[in-house]
Write a structure and sequence with these properties.
alpha+beta; five-stranded mixed β-sheet; 4 helices; 29% helix; 26% strand; globular; Phenazine_PhzF-like; isomerase activity; Isomerase
Length: 115
């Protein structure tokens, strides 16, 4: 990964059970990730990756205080890709929010966050 791409990645780590890889991106980088079938996200490569996750990848970004993209009252945005589970993209993954809530709660310093 080149230096420009590294600047877009703010955090990479496994969730607390090792099923999902959590990747926090800058808001601009998050916006650049297209649909699952786009060239920016290589699902075939993710399926065969030897990364130490067993289910999926949670991409997320923090929403700015002024409401990135006109979204007010939202603390973070997320997308879930489950290549190792046969799911290209799942737009409503409640289990991902079990990881995202505590992650952004600690980061923002609040016990309640909205994503």
């Amino acid at each position: 990964v080149d230096d420009a791409a590294n600047a877009d990645i703010l955090y990479v780590g496994l969730d607390n059970v090792g099923e999902d890889l959590l990747v926090e991106l800058t808001p601009d980088a998050f916006d650049r990730v297209g649909p699952a079938e786009s060239s920016l996200l290589d699902i075939a490569a993710l399926k065969t990756s030897d990364a130490k996750y067993s289910r999926g990848i949670i991409l997320c970004c923090r929403v700015s205080k002024d409401g990135k993209g006109g979204v007010r009252g939202i603390d973070f945005l997320s997308r879930f890709f489950g290549p190792k589970a046969g799911i290209d993209e799942d737009p409503v993954t409640g289990s991902a929010h079990c990881t995202l809530g505590p992650y952004f709660g600690a980061k923002i310093g609040r016990s309640r966050v909205v994503g």
